[in-house]
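In this notebook, the sequence line spells out the residues, with the fold written below as integer tokens. This is how one looks.
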Amino acid sequence: MIALAYLLSVLVAVVALALALRPRPVPAPPTNPPAFSAAADLPSGAEADVRLILVAAAQLAARLAPAA
């Protein structure tokens, strides 16, 4: 009786291993989005706004650098 239980457990283990190792389809790799120019989408007066944001970020970084 013990031998039968042992053989049954070995059979269950082999079936579980076979199911775990079966080949699976590999999904297709994601495609890259088309490249675009971010500067082309900005309005004509946005350069000053971008420079203002960069200056403010530099000032904030200068204030926070000594605290770190």
